[in-house]
Specification:
The structure is a homodimer of 437-residue chains.
Chain A: H1 3-20, H2 50-61, H3 83-95, H4 106-123, E1 130-134, H5 137-152, E2 156-160, H6 165-173, E3 177-181, E4 199-205, H7 217-227, E5 230-234, E6 259-263, H8 264-267, E7 275-279, H9 282-289, H10 318-353, E8 357-359, E9 367-372, H11 376-388, E10 395-399, E11 402-408, H12 416-436
Helix pairs in contact in A: 3-10, 4-10, 5-6, 5-9, 10-12, 11-12
């Protein structure tokens, strides 16, 4: 085996995959267990060539891949692993840095701090915030809520009914209760209904998972400030849109957050995993996680980013984000964000123009919630059948108790033709359903 | 920009890096802030070619890299990102799967389960255990201790004074107390001193970070069973050695663990991050993390591995471990583990044969703890000066209050010549210190 030859084959596999990713069925068309049963139950005694891995990737694994990189992946939050980010992951794995303290990887630690500052500038966040990377928003939320618990000793996490499930999971892990606040008429947290009694933290969502609704952060920041409650802003999806000034209305109040998360792997074109967590109270995160008491710290000590979250070992995750920002620039990021939103507008227009279909929630960014006038069961059947065509992958949510379809745009490969094709598939599938009913 | 051209350049960078990784100063010879000040304080407005990223990687970042892939990286636990694992990370980033539920990436979910079964077979773990991957042992420990808390409601985590710091961090996060048990004469947890009052879990370490001591797991398993306490076995480092039958003495009692962690990114030649967590009580992990109550589960539902740990989003981490196991086979893994242990024996022999030097702890695997007969300050100065030569990187620990040097062998590139060269550097540096004293 030589690294150059095997590497060239792996690279060619990757290049060919990206060339034809739009041709695969977007949602894997397999049943549970199909993939596993096609692989040997026992590990090999002797080594095999890397070519065997690539062969099985094609022949065995590929049918079991749901193609997140497909231009017609419209489920959950559609994302992109941009090419500079993919190649940066190759480099990070080659270096295999483990940045648990500064000297085990000075470049990783310092590039992470710098890249988070760059990202803060791109998104228009206050200068001077402390930023670091966690793998997922789930872990970022755990870090933020642990700091909140440390800060004021409260036992309750307050969030809306539309907050991401990871908030409740994190609260449970930390031994905190979750108090759900009802929504206003547009799927936002109703600030008039907030009760901060015994609260450690309030989580405001900018871009909820269901509808991308934006909670009223300025009013919530007032309430948190008055009550001494930690304000965590979950902008995991929508925060990336702040790279464009026209979407910064949704950032209002965010500058008053104690902590704020944006997932670069959601809509900032960076491969999984890259969750950006900022705080204006880094000493509180450190107090929650570091085993070195604050009074023993010296100012000349180089910073260890592992002091700000639950994991000690840290991959060189900043390299991919840095590569994407370098290769796209502010302009390139803006162009891609704007195109995704434009395409969502196009899709929304198609739905609105079609009798028997409705848009079910205000569209703030690149996600459209919609359904036909049929029953919940009919809409669910429509989703199942449309996904089975392999031509697209969409997911659903429940709004006011009704089954609602979602189209989330965010892959940088998605074109207007892809969006129109998805709409055609949905309309055709719906038409067939009506006939067979 | 074309992916094939940029990719070829990135691959060539990686190949050249690995060709010459032994030539770099192992420990980065920079001061805090050196790297960051050499990079622009603001992000670019316009995109740059990927070649600019590679250029800065060479010119700016490389001096700030501590070379974990160097054959003379002997600090902490020396590890390896093997070539098949590196290339698998390129493929995983290309696919960009996010496996939070089965259908979002059936191949990732099923390959992860299969690969963990393969690894269990290679290490001689009981069949039928449930395995999944977390990013680090820190997070695996959080998952295990959350399950323990769920299982019996205890409020205390019991471990030895030599248990990894991540145990105390995880306990704190979960709102549990840590109770440290004293050591016996060989840096192992003294089972006679265990007090399990109010305990949720006992963490036994197989291969402590300081000396790779092996706690008396069979006796601890008896105590846990009698008291209804969760037994978590931290075999993050030494568990990989079980691929060789001659090291399975250290596995005794491990089959009675409720959960057990082995870090494939430590000594199983897999790039960061790949922490393998097994449990014989998967329903308890699920109860701790899933928001779906157990009574609502149906048997025909495909398993979601995000139900077993704190993070919802999950990278395709199994691909790199699978690639390494495929390309090395049991035989290749055994050969590399045995060679690391043999080289540690060689180093131990050199220390033992040299007047004025001593071995400070029994050597169980591939780590040697040693020092000169000089003062603590002299040994510390020796470490600083030796690391400053750039010829090697070693770290230290404290044993019985004394400053002790550690040589940890585990990089697959390390040869006997590297070990002898490291010893020469240490002896020469020590000689110069004596003369200047």
């Amino acid at each position: 085996m030589t690294f150059r030859e095997d590497g060239a084959a792996a690279l060619e596999w990757a290049a060919r995959y990206l060339d034809r990713v739009g041709d695969f069925p977007v949602l894997a068309q397999v049943e549970p267990g199909d993939i596993r049963t096609r692989l040997p139950a026992a590990p090999p005694e002797h080594g095999e060539p890397f070519a065997a891995v690539l062969r099985d990737l094609d022949e065995v694994l590929l049918p079991g891949i749901t193609h997140w990189q497909s231009p017609r992946f419209f489920a959950y939050f559609s994302n992109s692993a941009a090419e500079p980010g993919i190649l940066a992951e190759l480099l990070a794995a080659t270096l295999n840095s483990v940045a648990f303290i500064w000297r085990t990887s000075p470049a990783s630690t310092e590039l992470e701090a710098l890249t988070l500052d760059w990202a803060a500038q791109l998104l228009g966040l206050p200068s001077g915030w402390h930023g670091h990377i966690e793998d997922t928003a789930s872990i970022s939320t755990i870090a933020a809520l642990a700091a909140a618990r440390e800060a004021n000793g409260g036992r309750v996490v307050v969030c809306s009914e539309e907050a991401h499930s990871s908030v409740e999971r994190a609260a449970r892990l930390l031994g905190l209760e979750t108090r759900k606040v009802p929504l206003d008429g547009e799927f936002r947290l109703d600030s008039a209904a907030v009760d901060l009694t015994d609260a450690a933290a309030l989580v405001a969502t900018v871009g909820t998972t269901s509808t991308t609704a934006v909670d009223p952060v300025p009013a919530l920041a007032d309430a948190c400030e008055a009550a001494g409650v930690w304000l965590h802003v979950d902008a995991a999806y929508a925060g990336s849109a702040w790279v464009c000034p026209e979407f910064r209305w949704s950032k209002a109040g965010g500058e008053r957050a104690d902590s704020l998360v944006v997932n670069a792997h959601k809509w900032l074109f960076t491969p999984m995993d890259c969750s950006l967590l900022w705080t204006r109270r880094p000493e509180t995160l450190r107090a929650a996680f570091s085993l070195v008491p604050e009074y023993l710290r010296t100012s000349d000590e180089a910073e260890s980013l592992s002091d700000y979250g639950p994991a000690l070992g840290r991959r060189f995750r900043s390299l991919k984000l840095w590569a994407v920002i370098r290769c796209y620039g502010r302009e390139g990021l803006q162009k891609r964000i704007r195109e995704a939103v434009r395409l969502a507008e196009v899709f929304e227009g198609l739905v609105r123009a079609e009798p028997g279909w409705e848009v079910c929630a205000p569209r703030a960014f690149s996600v459209v919630c919609f359904r036909t006038s049929g029953s919940d069961a009919e809409n669910e059947e429509l989703l199942t059948r449309a996904n089975k065509t392999g031509e697209l992958f969409i997911s659903h949510t429940k709004l006011d108790g009704r089954y609602v379809l979602r189209v989330a745009i965010g892959n940088e490969r998605t074109t207007e033709a892809d969006v129109r094709r998805a709409w055609d598939v949905l309309r055709r599938t719906s038409g067939r359903l009506s006939k067979s009913a």
